[in-house]
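During the reporting period the student researcher (J.K.) took over the structure-prediction task from the postdoctoral fellow and processed the backlog of single-chain submissions. One of the processed entries is reproduced below for the supervisory committee.
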Amino acid sequence: MVAQKKMEIWTEKHRPRFTRDMAFPTAKVGRQKVDLIEDLRKFVISFFKEKEKLNEINREIRTHNRTHEEKEHREEKKLPLDKAAVLLEGPPGIGKTTLAYALANDLNMEVIETNASDTRTKGALESKLRETTKSRGIMDFIVQSKKKLILIDEIDGLYGVTDRGAVPTILSLIENTQFPIIMCSNKYKQNLQSLYKKIRRYEVNPLPDEEVLKIARKIVVKEHISGITEKDLNLIIEKNEGDLRGVINDLQGISQGSLDKNTKELILNLNRDTTEEIFSLIRNLFQNVNTLKEARNLTNKSDVDYNFLYKWINENLTSYIRQNSEIANAYDNLSLADEIFGRIRKNQYWSLLPYFFDLFAGGVVLSRKNRTHDESFHRIMFPRFTSTGFFSLSANERSLVEKIQKKYKVSDIEAVQDFIPFLRVLCNSSRKQLGNVSNWFELDSKEKKILK
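J.K. obtained the following structure tokens:
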């Protein structure tokens, strides 16, 4: 085994930059098999040709409207939705996002990426995408910019329970966009039928095991991983069930360890983000870490995915940090970490990753100044929102969310990530506040316990 380069993520290091470097997944539209990359290439090229024609027609229409009375005005033309956006649907880790970036590089385009599961309300979506879909940004007047390709990931995480304006907002943005849009989703959602009917939906399949094996072999050679057999590679591929990203993560994990003993057990448990490991890591971060260096060492040694760990820290922050000033400071650091990670994803600035670690781990836990000697009673909570857009709520938590939604028009994600943490802080400030909150929402004893 060779030493792992510091902070280098293999899923990014080995991500194909152009489509010629890729193994293409098979896809179909309806029951018809299609050449996915060729279809997408034609879609993007055709978009700009059609948009250019429409823009010229609309310029003439606007000129006409300025010189005629309102009753003689003509309506501007719009590109059909199925020529402005497409949807790639398939399991996570099979290369949908990679394909979009590779295609953009082929065509010398810039990718503008956003995540729909992070912006569930109509207002948030409009705010995030309005400027993106316009014809020119402020920097376009200063430099010669590339054409843009808009990538909206996790569209299946879009639909909120109480906010039903999100899908119409997406359709409106598609209708008015000046750039082609590729959306990605992990699974079919009945609630997105109105979207499916308007745009072209590609069902994308995982790569065949043989193709994944070829990629895995190349990485083993490039990274000089020794002691791994063909049987081991097949076990890794079988374990990940078509998730190429998972296979690459496992190979990176193997490069940091040893295959000398019980190879099968190591592979089957590799990068599982087990509850025991995460519980131990969270406790150590909040209870035993006293310096930024210690926080770095702890996270560097962990096999837990950094984005997953970020969610666990976010979920358990208020369980360990109780003083308002310290909570505010910790959330400031989390917010800044999230902003940095957004820059990393958008611009591929992976050199910023150490700062992301420092802020979300060290910066958060070191915000806590007041500690007690015995803190073993702290209950560690599972993250309630995952990257696939689904919640893991108990019956009592679901009941609490529904009672919040009777009083306020918020989505599940807003209730869980924003509302409940605020109520916990409020209820822990005094018994009177707990009583007031309990009476306002008409909580039973089990629901009140969640806020204690």
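The committee noted the following: Residues 1-7, 135-143, 386-391 have pLDDT under 50 and may be disordered.
J.K. will present the remaining backlog at the next meeting.
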